[in-house]
Structure formats: structure tokens, C-alpha cells
């Protein structure tokens, strides 16, 4: 069976090796005669799964012991509330608003304390990462907050803000495992898994233990969202998303086995350069993000009319290139070229873009 070239923003394409490996052991997991779906999260066999997933992620990302790793439910969205409830000890956070999910996170944080907008690119339609605030702007704050890659608009931070010693919290949902990063630059980072790490329903959260060991900042924090309690219980305060974490572990192993984050970063840069090159060469396509803010993971562009954009999406789908419609908030075209999308798929898309342009001009 020829699988489609899947450019969906998430849930997104999974590495085929991961799907095949899960399929092969679906009915008989680790010699138990049962599916992993039927296996108790308290069993030794499952303990090995979650421990191995965490160990694999620690190795891939170089996560030091001073940071805890959690596999939570509720997607990235639930952590928009979990973060202020755990970290807002002084009641103040400094937010950089560079897109929809950054804005939603700031609005959610404002329910629990003062979420101060230190910079925003909303006036220019989120077409860029705004100029970064000076380190002094973060003085007296519990944390600075960014959404490192803006999935909808196709923009990405190419350098982190200097928060002047204040911890940086980053939503890395759509650039998780896309390139090497230094975990110690962050107080906390988190990602909904459904782009680069596995299925939806798992949120991977990496946190400097010293920020959370005293327990949540706010007494109203639900027990489930208490990061210190979750760390103490190894993400098993209740029944975790066992199958999701199992798949994430396989994806982490796949990233390691394909050269780790260094190699992934190089492949992703090559894919992005191919696609942006096609946009920039063309008289038909117009990139949405200002070039210095372009994302390596979500490439957004427009055609002259919504009708042509619909035709582009439909004809692409007819050729097995799927998931190209832009987010419903903005329209246009979005090609998400996450880790599991190979360079061949990007070459096919570029060839389609060129032939489409010839056919309509
Ligand atoms: N942050 C970013 C950057 C996202 O792209 C998304 C969803 N696509 C979210 C947060 C929300 O994630 P979830 O659906 O897992 O709650």
C-alpha cells in the first residue's frame, strides 16, 4: 500500500517503523500474550515501558537529573493552566505573544495571576516573532513564557529571550525533537505529543525540579496537575495514557536510531530550505511569515485567492499529498514537515507546487 504524503499539523505523520513495530507486537506485547492496551500500568512489563521511554528521551535531549520528565494527559492545553498553578508564587508571569496558542496560554494564565504581555506580534497578524524584551522586563516575574514554534502562523524563535535569571517556560509542541536544544536554558518545556513525539493524549513536560519541589504555587491546583506529586509518582498518580506513552517511547528510540537531534535538525533544515526555496522562486505562492521568523516545522504560504487555495489543496490530495489546508483561523496553505515527513515527500510537494503553478498561470 502506498501511504499518502501527510503534511498534517497534528495528529501528524508517524515514523513508519514505529507503526510497524507497534503492529507487530499489538496482540502479544513483551511475550505476555496480551496487548499493551490490556496491560496494567502497575505491571512490571509496563513499568519497563515507561522507564525506557523516559530514559530514551533523556538520552535524546540530554536531560540532566536535576530535571524531571512527566507524561501527562490533557494535551498541551491543560498545561496552560498547570503552569501558572505550579509556578506563580509571586503571581506574575511575563508572556511573549507570538501566535494563537501563546495568546490562549496568556489568557489562561491570567485566570490565576497577572499574565503581563511583554511583547506581541498580533498587530502584524502574527507574521513574525516580536522583538524580544530586555532581560530587565522579566524582573520580579515568576517566569517568562514563549511558544517557541507557532504552528498556525509558521513562525519560530531563532533565539531564546534572555530572561535575566527568571526561568523560561516554553511551549515546544510543534518543534519538539526538531533540533538540538539545551534543556538547562529552560525552567520548563512542554509539548503535546501529536506532532513529533507520538499520538495525541500525551503531553511531555520537562521541568527543573527546583521550581516545583515545594509543591504547587496555588492551593487550587488540582492534584492531577501538581507537578511535584506527579514527579513523586512517576507520572502514575492515576492511570496514565499507557498506549500513548508506549508509542512515544518508540518514537524516541526512532529519533535516537536515526542519528539523534543533531541529524534531525540537519534534515529538517534541508527540508525547510527546499520548501521555502519553492515559495520564494514562485510568482504564485507568497510566504506568510517574515523570512527571519520562519518555522522549520510549519511552512505557511498563500495563493492569490481562496478559490485557488482550495483547488491547490484538492488537486494535491488527488496526488496523495494530504493535510495541506491552513488552520481554520487563517486559511491559506500549511505544510507541516515534522520529523517523520521525509525529504522525498517534500520533493514531491515541491514538484506538485511547480506543476500546479504552470497549470494555472
Ligand atoms: N501549543 C501549540 C504550539 C500547538 O500547536 C497546539 C495544538 N496544535 C497546542 C499548544 C494545543 O495542543 P493540544 O491540542 O495538545 O492541547
Record keyword descriptors for this entry.
alpha/beta, globular, 7-stranded mixed beta sheet, Aspartate Aminotransferase, domain 2, Aspartate Aminotransferase, domain 1, 361 residues, 3-stranded antiparallel beta sheet, 2 domains, binds 4'-deoxy-4'-aminopyridoxal-5'-phosphate
Overall CATH architecture of the largest domain = 3-Layer(aba) Sandwich
Largest sheet: 7 strands, mixed
Structural domain count: 2
Terminal CA distance: 34 Å
**Percentage of β-strand residues:** 15-25%
Number of helices: 10
Globally, the shape reads: globular
The CATH homologous superfamily name of the largest domain equals: Type I PLP-dependent aspartate aminotransferase-like (Major domain)
CATH class of the largest domain: Alpha Beta
Widest sheet, order of strands:
2-10-9-8-5-3-4
Helix content: 25-40%
Q: What is the CATH topology of the largest domain?
A: Aspartate Aminotransferase, domain 2
Number of strands: 14
Q: Radius of gyration over alpha carbons?
A: 21 Å
What bound compounds does this protein have?
A: 4'-deoxy-4'-aminopyridoxal-5'-phosphate
Q: What class, by secondary structure content?
A: alpha/beta
Low-pLDDT stretches? none
What's the helix-strand series?
EHHEHEHEEEEEEEHHHHEEHEEH
Domain Aminotransferase class V: 6-345
InterPro entries: Aminotrans_V_dom, Pser_aminoTfrase, PyrdxlP-dep_Trfase, PyrdxlP-dep_Trfase_major, PyrdxlP-dep_Trfase_small
Keywords: Amino-acid biosynthesis, Aminotransferase, Cytoplasm, Pyridoxal phosphate, Pyridoxine biosynthesis, Serine biosynthesis, Transferase
Subunit structure: Homodimer.
